[in-house]
Design brief:
The structure is a single chain. This protein has 210 residues and is of the alpha/beta class. It contains 9 helices and 7 strands. Strands 3-2-1-4-6-5-7 form a 7-stranded mixed β-sheet, with helices on both faces.
């Protein structure tokens, strides 16, 4: 099964606000770098046929389009879940049976092979999700052909996605797909896992690994 990934991205000036204490003025640069590494890894995944980024940020749109993403403006401007629903609708307008998965934009350590493992596991269910490394949120939510995405991201989304009927995935060692970055500690963990080149450059010298 080939998937279309829908990745939401806030305007960079507002993205990753919880990272501010660790990143300071580099926060927008890091938010873009996370998204670039996420999109680049997703595009390299053999299970992914297309990547759609929902954003109103002009710089991010240009940079991510250069990596092969299709940019969809966030016309609802009503938050993360509205953006994801809008992106999924844009994907399915010409292809109603498309398999769609929502993916966080802040997975700088993402590995294409691990993403393929998650999507392979998701293909067995109408809707499925992968919890984040903290076990509270969600980093990926899938909807196979004929199923609505019904995103419920945000704090505590693991329980909401479970309540909505989505199956929780347990596909083995897929740490890179679960390690989103909201805080300085998250970034340190991602750096230990091994981030992509954009994040490595943006974070150079920012955080001590000691």
């Amino acid at each position: 099964m080939q998937w279309t990934l829908v990745i939401p991205l806030k305007p960079l000036v507002r993205a990753k606000s919880r990272l501010a204490p660790a990143a300071g003025g580099l926060r927008p640069d890091l938010a873009l770098a996370f998204a670039q590494d996420t999109v680049a890894a997703a595009r390299a995944c053999p299970a992914v046929g297309d990547v759609v980024v929902v954003t109103d940020d002009a710089l991010a749109g240009r940079e991510l389009a250069a990596l092969g993403a299709r940019i969809v403006p966030d016309t609802p401007r009503a938050g993360l879940n509205a953006a994801l629903a809008h992106g999924a609708a844009a994907v399915r307008a010409p292809r109603p049976a498309a398999a769609v998965a929502a993916l966080n934009a802040d997975l700088p350590a993402l590995r294409p092979a691990e993403l393929a493992r998650v999507l392979g596991a998701a293909a067995a269910f109408p809707r499925a999700f992968l919890p984040d490394a903290a076990g509270i949120g969600t980093t990926l939510l899938s909807a196979g052909p004929g199923a609505e995405l019904l995103p419920a991201f945000g704090t505590g989304s693991r329980s909401r996605h479970t309540a909505s009927g989505a199956v929780e995935l347990v596909p083995g060692e897929v740490d890179s797909v679960r390690q989103d970055v909201d805080t300085g500690d998250d970034l340190r963990t991602a750096l230990i896992l091994g981030v992509g080149p954009y994040t490595a450059r943006a974070a150079a010298g920012l955080l001590s690994m000691d």
